[in-house]
Amino acid sequence: MHFPKKCSVFKVVLSALLLVALLQLMYLSLLSKLHGKQQRYKYSELFETNSQLKRGIFQHQKNTRKERLKYSLSSGGIFDQSGQYRVYKNIIKSEFTANHEARDSSDRTKQFALATHTSINNLHHLNELLGRWRNALSVAIFAHAQDVKFSTALIFALSEFCPQVQALVDFHLICHSGEIASFPEQDREQFAGLQDCQDVFRKLEKHRDTFQNYAMGRNVSYPNNLLRNVARAGLDADYTLVIDIDMLPSQNLHDEFLNFLKRRAPRPDEVFVVPAFEIRHTRKIPATKTELLQLYQVGEVRPFYEELCHKCQAPSNYSSWVNLHSPGGADSTEFRVAYTLSWVDPWEPFYIGGRAVPLYDERFRQYGFNRISQACELHVAGYSFSVLSSAFLVHRGFKVSREFHARKDEENRLNRVLFRQFKEGLKLKYQDSTRRC
User: Fold this and answer.
1) What is the pTM of this model?
2) What's the count of helices (H) and strands (E) in the chain, helices before strands?
């Protein structure tokens, strides 16, 4: 009988297994503690002073992104042409921009980027936008009163915790001229608990209902065209698409457009229209034209502003676009020019334009005529509008009048008067042009 020997071997094996399990538990415990310390240090990097950091667990290492932000804010920004707004350009630069600037100009390929604008209560849309657009992106943010400090902190938190933001997004901050942005060194309690990218976006989500769009206060005007110009100027791109932050581009728009440019050189007086749609809130945003058309045919997708201002988008000729025959088959995503149009009042298309495209007139603020005026100037300046066959934009939710702020109609009337003055100014600016708005 060898039971005692077998029992002894069994005990040895069991003891070894228990020892391994114990070591694994100790390892996981240490790993968890280390992660917690790293997160506390990460938080300290965000919102504590250098002296506080030195008392921490890790030796303080200079956060270059934080130092650049503090330096940018310390400049006091610059005033816009009206003197009513303070502009902090490139307070956060992406890795893409830093690498692009470091390259010799002869070594650069053509760049196509996205520019957008928002107030802080809509910045949460950036998360979904980055899920679709994984290329250079410039974001101009307007903040007012207490939101100036909040915006500065959240912009920095996004740049620290979100790898895709670090890689691709440049931020610019705009506030009233009497307000000064600074780095929020003392906001420890407000930002406790931020440990990863989704925490930051959840924080932004909670802020989304702070105020209604264009209703930030009786004496607060949202400078949409100033924001568009700042976002566009913040990019060193050959071509730019300027959109609202709550819109998503079609899948692979960036790569397909650059492939299109290899096959067809654009004319200097040509912009490329990207048809815009809106979709019911409950529906998934389509990625391809095939998916879009399926939803369009059952009424779940419709032309952008279909209810609010049908004439503002109708010149895009949606019926022709949805019925286009693709040479590459129904599922082909290859871009081509479907047709070319001349501008008609009051068309306000979204388009991809080159560096020479005129800027937006910054006198237009709040609601009405801010994009129409710029499209009108393109027309007078001699531009044509070429509609791309498979590219599109989608706004989540149907635009309906009851969701707009109370002063919408009043603002529209005031901007209509300004638009008449603007058109008279174009006659002087483009005296040799025979085109009129």
Assistant:
1) 0.85
2) 15, 14
